[in-house]
């Protein structure tokens, strides 16, 4: 599969697109928001030095060639015209995802494989909306995918083996380590472990138990982990935890989401990708 379409020009959608282009794929990024698309040139300029820093095979010429393989559009039919694989990275709201996939299923070529990058939703929650549930699965990438290069691949009961095999092969071709899940699991492997940890940190912050720098330092020093929970929040970006928690049955998590909206999202402190979140980055 040589032609990838990425739905959503946010932090992770742009990383998936750039990384696939870096490994030789032709990529189209679709987003309804023309402003988000216009900012992608700055995003490529932001990612390039990180590749040079972290990947021994990265060169200026290879990065420039990757940018040439990236195209953008706000027209869905144009985005899907040649798609072998579609990876969706739109906001973590079920109704939005179903609406997007219903449109994609009406337009995409017959052979196209459909994948959601949803962090918590199950493929079976979304697959029927696409009209092609047998070709639908989940491919979950972690942030900073050029460094943390695993992709969790999870089908649902109706996903055909050929679609999963194709997703595994594509992942390997773009330098990822594919991890197959044998059954549907909310949160896959990574987030099944990560979300309880992040929830505990959110409640420590909400109740003013300690400063965020001290919470992060305690976790790093006590476990040897490279990042604390609030550094991870900055890596993920504020919008995903806001969307996940604002509809929670837990009133404390709803309060945390409201705090994120008021003190961070509304102030433009969206996380490390924009240089400001819980911490300031230079």
From TrEMBL:
Extract the InterPro entries matched here: 3-OHacyl-CoA_DH, 3-OHacyl-CoA_DH_NAD-bd, 3HC_DH_C, 6-PGluconate_DH-like_C_sf, 6PGD_dom2, NAD(P)-bd_dom_sf
UniProt keywords, alphabetically? Oxidoreductase
Question: Which Pfam families does the record cross-reference, listed alphabetically?
Answer: 3HCDH (PF00725), 3HCDH_N (PF02737)
3-hydroxyacyl-CoA dehydrogenase NAD binding domain residues: 4-184
Q: Which residues form a coiled coil?
A: none
On the tree of life, the source organism's domain of life is Bacteria
- Which part of the chain is the 3-hydroxyacyl-CoA dehydrogenase C-terminal domain? 187-281
Q: For this chain's UniProt record, which GO biological process terms are given? A: fatty acid beta-oxidation
> What NCBIfam families does UniProt report for this protein, alphabetically?
PRK08293.1 (NF006143)
Family to which this protein belongs: Belongs to the 3-hydroxyacyl-CoA dehydrogenase family.
Q: Which PANTHER family does the UniProt record give? A: 3-HYDROXYACYL-COA DEHYDROGENASE FAMILY PROTEIN (PTHR48075), 3-HYDROXYBUTYRYL-COA DEHYDROGENASE (PTHR48075:SF5)
Its protein name is 3-hydroxybutyryl-CoA dehydrogenase
What is the native source organism of this protein? Enteractinococcus helveticum
Question: What does the organism's lineage look like at the top?
Answer: Bacteria, Bacillati, Actinomycetota, Actinomycetes, Micrococcales
């Amino acid at each position: 599969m040589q032609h990838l379409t990425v739905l959503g020009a946010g932090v992770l959608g742009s990383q998936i697109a750039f990384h696939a282009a870096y490994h030789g794929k032709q990529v189209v990024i679709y987003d309804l928001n023309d402003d988000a698309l216009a900012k992608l040139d700055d995003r490529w300029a932001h990612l390039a030095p990180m590749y040079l820093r972290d990947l021994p095979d990265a060169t200026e010429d290879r990065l420039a060639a990757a940018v040439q393989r990236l195209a953008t559009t706000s027209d869905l039919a144009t985005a899907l015209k040649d798609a072998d694989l579609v990876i969706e990275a739109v906001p973590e709201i079920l109704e939005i995802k179903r609406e997007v996939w219903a449109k994609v299923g009406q337009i995409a070529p017959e052979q196209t494989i459909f994948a959601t990058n949803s962090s918590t939703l199950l493929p079976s929650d979304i697959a029927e909306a696409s009209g092609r549930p047998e070709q639908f699965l989940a491919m979950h990438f972690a942030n900073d995918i050029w460094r943390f290069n695993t992709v969790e691949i999870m089908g649902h009961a109706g996903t055909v083996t050929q679609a999963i095999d194709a997703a595994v092969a594509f992942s390997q071709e773009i330098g990822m380590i594919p991890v197959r899940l044998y059954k549907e699991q909310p949160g896959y492997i990574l987030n099944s472990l990560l979300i309880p940890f992040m929830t505990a940190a959110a409640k420590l912050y909400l109740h003013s138990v300690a400063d965020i720098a001290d919470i992060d330092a305690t976790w790093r020093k006590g476990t040897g982990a490279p990042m604390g929970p609030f550094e991870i929040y900055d890596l993920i970006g504020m919008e995903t935890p806001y969307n996940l928690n604002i509809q929670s049955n837990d009133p404390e998590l709803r309060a945390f989401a409201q705090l994120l909206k008021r003190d961070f999202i509304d102030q433009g402190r969206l996380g490390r990708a924009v240089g400001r979140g819980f911490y300031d980055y230079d």
